[in-house]
Amino acid sequence: MPTRTLLLITCLSVSFTFSVQSRVLAEEAQTPSGAATTNSMVAQATAKTEGDHGEVTVEQQGKSRSDIEITRKIRRAVVMKKSLSGYAQNVKIITRNGHVTLKGAVRSEAEKNIINEKALRIAGSGNVTNDLEVVPK
């Protein structure tokens, strides 16, 4: 039952992301071209500033089909591994331009390695940053 709930939450969050993205694109289409350029410049400056700290957030999840598909495949592989703790099954998986960042807490080094291996198998070698933290009970 928890797996179904997690999958439902994941689907709803992806749906919400698309809804918000569509609204933003619609608003940009209605603004004069100069305003759209200014908004784009502000967004780029913000992204650059956030990137300077090396901090990857869920909001930075890529919107491309391939990024969403990579995240979906990794999430499914993690959730299907029933031996993982609830912490491990709920780690953040953020994919941007094909690069995956894993964030959150897991209960053991073994869980950290299992999730990392699943992400590497799906995203490919050199495309995964493992920022998972081991937090024992």
Structural notes for this entry:
The chain is of the alpha+beta class and 137 residues long. It has one domain. 61% of the residues lie in helices and 15% in strands. The protein contains 5 helices and 3 strands; from the N terminus they run ααααββαβ. It has helices at residues 2-30, 33-52, 65-80, 86-89, 109-123, and strands at residues 92-96, 99-106, 128-134. A 3-stranded mixed beta sheet has the order 1-2-3. α5 links the parallel β2 and β3 (128-134). 18% of the residues are buried. The model is unreliable at 33-53 (pLDDT under 50).
- Oligomeric description of these chains: single chain
Order of helices and strands: HHHHEEHE
How many β-strand runs?
A: 3
What is the rounded distance between the termini?
23 Å
Rg of Cα set: 17 Å
Tally of separate helices:
5
Quote the beta fraction: 5-15%
Q: Approximately how much helix is present in the residues? A: 55-70%
The average pLDDT value, as a whole number, equals: 76
Largest sheet: 3 strands, mixed
- The strand order across the widest sheet is 1-2-3
Total domains? 1
Q: Globular, elongated, flat, extended or rod-shaped: what is the shape?
A: globular
Low-confidence stretches: 33-53
Structural class: alpha+beta
Q: How are the secondary structure elements laid out?
A:
Elements: H1 2-30, H2 33-52, H3 65-80, H4 86-89, E1 92-96, E2 99-106, H5 109-123, E3 128-134
Please describe the structure with a list of short key phrases separated by commas or semicolons.
single chain, 137 residues, alpha+beta, three-stranded mixed sheet, 61% helix
